[in-house]
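Residues pack. Consider this:
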Amino acid sequence: MRHQCGEKNIEEAGDAYRDHGVDASVEPFIKDMAEAYGWADIVLCRSGALTVSELCVAGVGAVLVPFPHAVDDHQTRNAQQMVNAKGAILIPQPKLSVDLLAETLTDLARTAAGFWTWRRPQRRWLAPMQRRES
């Protein structure tokens, strides 16, 4: 487990993982996101434009929890694009719970293809955007 939580939450997050016997690296900020995405089997994160773009380029699947107060709910639309490309699962923050997250991750891990089928679809989704910019 690798968790970026911001400086003010480091102690609380680290304690929570230790209390539950989870071996986790808790960091205030991850400097090398390419390395972090390469290391990850799956990412749990918000769905801002930069984050979604990084996930697409890295080809890593995600469980996306859009920030509910984002202007014009753009994070939900960003997340939905990855869901449509079969590169993510969207969980609205009001529905997010420990039980739902555990169930979602367990289902992904049980699926034979599971995490690994997500390694390419996002790159396909990104291709039309690259063509428009050329």
Summary: Residues 129-134 have pLDDT under 50 and may be disordered.
